[in-house]
Design a protein that fits this description.
With 947 residues, this protein is α/β, with parallel strands linked by helices. Among the domains are: 37-264, Tandem AAA-ATPase domain (Rossmann fold, 3-Layer(aba) Sandwich), CATH 3.40.50.10810; 638-725, no CATH class; 823-928. It is built from 38 helices and 22 strands. Helix 2 (21-31) crosses helix 4 (66-79), helix 3 packs across helix 4 and helix 26 (555-567) runs parallel beside helix 29. It comes from Ferrimonas aestuarii.
């Protein structure tokens, strides 16, 4: 079979047309390496529904994949060539986001933090947030909340196309006058930018929190705080007002529940089981802990200066709880640096998550002083090191060896594989554990994963993996990502144990493993949940077992476990049992800081008990999971409606994806048809130049094939190449040879000739570009051919080398083309009317909020005056009556001032409404362009025709 460059150009243009989100989302889904669920597509389409929208809140319950939803939105913007994209996330999630964007959506990203920001500034870049200027290529910018707030001036100077804020409940108290400083800075810096806020708990304690989040998106969505309070924050809100508020919120907030998704059949949730192993440290281990702890509690330390005090003591305490081997190595490095009078921060690299704290901490050490006192501290550290070196046994390590077999039995009883991921916070402990476990029956069954993986074993695994997958899409080109992929593959296929640090495990999915061991337990509940989320996530087929160790010689350690287990409910129950709590706490880092303070200041078990009791009391409101009726009535929709909608969406996605992939495969067929071979071995893939390609990403990965998609690689190359050709007017002789069944409409054209033209129409506003191909064909007898038939005709093969030059009379297309163009313009106009109508309604409601607030204030003052008059009549003394009269006069003057200003204020509201509507109209102004792709004469020949 043979196809002309004209046919290839038509299909290449057809596959890359810009359009509404629900039209072009299919391309994004087809290019993503993720098994998309209908609720995720629904959420992304909700965020992209109106080009005039200032943003939305995506509020699905935890565990339903808000990261995927937001990534879909970012990928869609990227495909539209809107590349000024910003992600603001908790510091601990920066790497995870970067990894997800790269692995699942092939979206490049750059993490901006203090070190890289300062480096870019030194290199002469005026604004390190302007990634494309700094690096010469666009990328999604990722930074933490605290860093973004500190750099508000630079942040404000970038014209962001979209800003995504993860864990956005951090901003919900912005309406309060006190506190919320970070939220206020970000709000000011990002005014006018389109935003997507992600939060499982946008409303936790007060309806005003919802007001706060919506005001971050659009200050003209509700009236000011006073008018919102007056209208909606009443004790007993009238049903009609509640219904109106629900309707207004439904336009800006999308929420799906786990039970709805489970009912639709998208996700099946497994359970998690807790297993604990007690241990008691040896006398020397306890002595080392006690002496180092007392050292860290001293106020007069010279070696650890105030700027770095919190960070250094926190990390040393983590290492102290990990293993004596880690303590010994850290003490040795500390001693070396102090003897060279260098800051201690760099001595803490054993703690693999150090940079998450460095970005938010002031870590500059002052110049070290008083050499004699400093030497005394160095000598003390040498004593600690000597004691650590004398300890040969390790009680917690022995407990690990004991519990592993019991945990494996439980996991296998639940149907899981004999695999365990073991988490430690220390790289030294990780290496030591690998040696210990290898000597206790696990030799050649261990993989280590950390932030660098510079050990010889990891390097060998990586090298072998590169050789095995040479030339395949498995190799991304990023050494960090490929090293992780190699080690995860090794764990999946050959190993029993993977020993991980936090930094190493960011962004990896280990659903094939269902046993997790917290060798070192973090104090931050969100970090614990992230760990468990590596195995207990969407795609996990078995119930998960989580093992923790309880140090019976340390009451503070016991209380930390009780807090995480009993109060935060992290280790037991159905997937996501803790999301109400985790979503409600402002910051896991703050809780970690509070726990650290207890370790630093308490010198007895009694003090520890009292301090932990106080901490739990302060967290009480957040930790008590309640059924929030307000949230249910405002944000949650009837299950039956949601399930029905998700079922419909699944059907549409499957259908549209199938059609798109068939077209993409047809493009490859057309492109390679002239090579005289059949490269198309099966319905979802083909071979080309010794490489196998597959449109199904799971099959491509499992069979070591290239993922064939539009966004990059061969697919992107073909489309670019086929679209740029200049096409002469020729005669195309089609051979009727349908690929799928009988196309009677094309069959009826056998023996006929005519003229054909393909024109691309682009209708653009500042907010949205819409494109369509106008397919016009006329027979020589003057009959018009339906565009759908023309589309089918263009998929027919042609006679080899039979494309003689031709002349076409352009006048024959005029009427049909004009009709198609008008039909398309009518659709665009109708959509724009809907967008405009939604904005008009929003502004009318905003103006109504403001006017109602004025009315309510006048009525309140009238009521206060009436009550004051009544009260003054009952007063006994002249003094009291005179004071009451003065207060009455004050209220009357205030009411008169409000009434005098009433009409002036209403006029201002109307003027602001008119100004905003003019802005909207300007944003919808359309510019129409027509581009002729090609013109041709055509003939349809019988199927038995051969060249």
């Amino acid at each position: 079979m043979h196809f002309s460059p004209h046919q290839k150009a038509w299909l290449a243009h057809s596959l890359t047309l810009a359009g509404k989100a629900d039209e072009s989302m299919t391309k994004t889904i087809a290019s993503a390496k993720v098994d998309m669920n209908p609720h995720q597509v629904e959420a992304a389409l909700f965020a992209l529904a109106s080009p005039l929208s200032s943003g939305v809140i995506l509020a699905d319950e935890v565990g339903l994949g808000k990261t995927i939803e937001a990534s879909l939105v970012l990928a869609q913007k990227w495909a539209e060539r809107r590349r000024k994209l910003l992600l603001i996330v908790p510091a601990t999630l920066r790497k995870q986001w970067s990894q997800e964007l790269e692995e699942k959506f092939s979206l490049p990203s750059v993490i901006i933090e203090a070190k890289s920001f300062n480096q870019a500034s030194k290199e002469g870049h005026a604004n390190p947030f302007d990634i494309e200027v700094c690096s010469g290529r666009p990328a999604i910018c990722i930074c933490s909340y605290e860093f973004a707030a500190r750099k508000e001036v630079e942040l404000a100077r970038v014209p962001w196309d979209l800003v995504v804020l993860d864990e956005a409940h951090k901003l919900r108290n912005i309406y309060k006058k006190d506190g919320a400083k970070t939220a206020r800075k970000l709000d000011a810096a990002l005014t006018g930018r389109k935003k997507v806020l992600l939060s499982a708990t946008p409303l936790q304690n007060s309806i005003l929190e919802l007001y706060g989040l919506v005001s971050v998106i659009d200050p003209h969505y509700f009236g000011d705080l006073g008018s919102f309070k007056a209208r909606y924050a009443k004790q007993n809100l009238e049903e009609i007002e509640l219904a109106l508020l629900r309707h207004r919120l439904s336009k800006v907030c999308n929420r799906t529940l786990r039970r709805q998704v489970q009912e639709e059949g998208g996700i099946s949730f497994t359970r998690r089981y807790s297993m604990t192993e007690d241990f008691r440290p040896t006398a020397n281990e306890e002595k080392l802990y006690q002496e180092v702890s007392e050292y860290l509690q001293r106020d007069d330390l010279l070696s650890i200066k105030s700027g770095a005090r919190h960070l250094v003591t926190l990390v040393i305490r983590k290492i102290l709880a990990s293993s004596t081997h880690a303590v010994q190595g850290t003490l040795e490095t500390m001693i070396e640096r102090l003897e060279r009078k260098q800051p201690l921060v760099e001595a803490l690299q054993d703690y693999d998550n150090l940079e998450d704290y460095q970005d938010e901490e002031s870590i500059e050490d002052d110049d070290l002083i008083d050499p004699e006192a400093l030497q005394a501290e160095i000598d003390l550290l040498k004593d600690f090191k000597k004691l650590a070196g004398s300890i040969t046994g390790n009680a917690k390590a022995e407990a690990l060896i004991r519990v592993l077999q019991r945990a494996f039995s439980k996991t296998q009883e639940l149907g899981g594989a004999r695999k365990a991921v073991i988490f430690t916070e220390s790289v030294r402990t990780q290496t030591w554990l690998a040696e210990l476990l290898a000597a206790n029956g696990y030799a050649n069954e261990i993989v280590m994963l950390n932030g660098s993986n510079n050990d010889a074993t990891s390097k060998t695994i990586y090298k072998d993996w590169l050789t095995e997958h040479e030339g395949s899409s498995r190799i991304s080109g990023s050494k960090t990502a490929d090293m992780k992929a190699a080690l995860v593959d090794k764990f999946r296929n050959d190993a029993t144990l993977m020993i991980c640090t936090e930094a190493g495990a960011e962004g990896i999915n280990l659903q094939f493993c269902s046993l997790l061991v917290n060798y070192d337990l973090p104090w931050n509940p969100q970090r614990v949940e992230q760990r468990i989320g590596r195995v207990h996530r969407y795609g996990q087929k078995h119930d998960v077992v989580v093992v923790n160790f309880i140090n019976k010689g340390n009451r503070a350690d016991e209380r930390v476990f009780e807090l995480l287990s009993q109060k935060f409910q992290l280790f037991e129950g159905v997937f996501g049992a803790s999301d109400e709590v985790l979503g409600s706490i402002e910051s896991g880092v703050d809780i970690e800081r509070r726990i650290h303070d207890i370790y630093q200041h308490c010198r007895s078990d009694e003090q520890i008990e009292a301090e932990f009791n106080q901490l739990q009391e302060q967290l009480k409101d957040q930790l008590e999971v309640k059924v929030n009726d307000t949230r249910k009535s405002l944000l949650e929709h009837f299950d039956a409606d949601v399930v029905s909608r998700l079922n419909t969406r699944r059907g549409k996605v499957v259908s549209q994806l199938s059609h798109f992939q068939q077209q993409l495969l047809q493009l490859a067929r057309m492109a390679f048809a002239d090579n005289g071979q059949d490269y198309f071995e099966h319905e979802s893939g083909f071979s080309w130049q010794g490489q196998k390609y597959n449109l199904n990403w799971q099959e491509a990965e499992s069979q070591d094939q290239q993922f064939f998609r539009l966004s990059d690689g061969l697919g992107a190359h073909l489309v670019t190449e086929l679209k740029i050709a200049t096409l002469p007017t020729v005669h195309l002789s089609f051979v009727y040879s349908p690929q799928q069944g009988q196309w009677v409409d094309v069959k009826n054209l056998i023996g006929q000739t005519g003229s054909l033209r393909v024109v691309k129409v682009s209708v653009g506003s500042s907010e949205e570009l819409r494109e369509k191909l106008l397919l016009t064909a006329i027979t020589d007898s003057g009959d018009s051919i339906h565009p759908e038939t023309v589309e089918r005709l263009l998929q027919m093969p042609i006679v080899t080398n039979d494309m003689p030059p031709a002349v076409v009379n352009p006048d024959v297309f005029e009427s049909d083309e004009a009709n198609q163009l008008q039909a398309f313009m009518d659709i665009v106009e109708r959509d724009n009317e809907l967008y405009y109508g939604e904005e008009v309604e929003k502004l009318e409601r905003w103006a109504e909020d403001k006017r109602i607030a004025l009315d309510i204030r006048v009525k309140q003052l009238d009521q206060e005056i009436k009550q004051a008059r009544k009260a003054s009549r009952q007063l006994a003394t002249l003094q009291e009556k005179m004071a009451a009269k003065r207060e009455l006069k004050r209220l009357e003057r205030e009411r008169d001032t409000v009434m005098l200003n009433y009409h002036e204020e209403k006029k201002k509201i109307e003027q602001e409404e008119d100004r905003l509507l003019e802005q909207i109209e300007a944003r919808l102004a359309m510019d129409t362009q027509l581009e002729t792709i090609f013109e041709a004469r055509w003939t349809v020949l019988k199927p038995e025709f051969t060249a």
